[in-house]
Amino acid sequence: MNAITANTSPATARQVIRSGGWPRITTGLCAGHVQANLVVLPRDSATEFAEFCRANPKPLPLLEVADAPDRLRIAPGADLRTDLPKYHVHRSGEVSEVDDVWEVWRDDLVAFLLGCSFSAEERLLAAGVRLRHLDLGQGVPIFRTSLRCQEIGRFRGPLVVSMRAVRETEVARAVEVTGELPFAHGAPVHVGDPEAIGITDLARPDWGDALPLQDGEVPVFWACGVTPQAVLAEVRPELAITHAPAHMFLTDLQVADLIERGVEEA
């Protein structure tokens, strides 16, 4: 297996992934660059889904809309059919996991690239916020909540969140740092009691790896780009494609540039 590290360029990492050399999660890779969630829908749903993204900017910070899988402004030379480690293919509510979507892709599909909280983790670490799941080499635990997205047309569903165990003394700093990153879901949507947002058991995430809290840690919840997958489970489109949770698309966008420009100009 070819190694991808924090120091690997996104273009090189995408080539490794395209060749099948990285069938793993992308947390911690390509430091300083924005990682993206992927949602692909038929063109007749695209306008409505774009409105859904704009109505729900916390879970769905829109980076780019692409009519072709291999002509991307935020990653020249990339191909969305091959350059993610794993994909989910959604067909009328049934989900399968595949390594590429070359044979699934159709000419009428439109791709949406959405910001990801993985892009915030380097900033949190630099600010002195410990992220224990990274120490353990795990993905973040991800949960459906009782909170609902703002409904637009056929698109409706629960807000999905990622949870990070943060030392109580570092929570305020984590909120401050991520509040500067709207393209990576921004500040947390909830801090503390998980039952207040409908999460009954932190040991049983809906996606990702469980992370038991240690003494002095607080659960902190950020809006998550897996939200569209929970939405698709309710909407049950004839066809949709997404990234597999935690297997993100590595863009050429620099986190520092987006902090200056803002997600609206991404």
The tally of domains stands at 2
Measured between the Cα atoms of the first and last residue, the distance is: 33 Å
CATH fold topology of the largest domain: PSTPO5379-like
Query: What's the helical proportion of residues?
Result: 10-25%
CATH architecture of the largest domain: 3-Layer(aba) Sandwich
Low-pLDDT segments, ≥5 res = none
The CATH fourth-level homologous superfamily of the largest domain: PSTPO5379-like
Q: What's the SSE pattern?
A: HEHEEEEHHEEHEEHEEH
Give the amount of beta strand, in percent: 25-35%
The CATH class of the largest domain is: Alpha Beta
What's the main sheet like?
Answer: 7 strands, antiparallel
> Total helix count?
7
Summed over residues and divided by their number, the pLDDT gives a mean of 95
- Helix vs. strand class: alpha+beta
The coarse overall form would be globular
**How many β-strand runs?**
11
Family: Belongs to the D-glutamate cyclase family.
GO molecular function, one term: lyase activity
Protein name: Putative hydro-lyase
Pfam families: D-Glu_cyclase
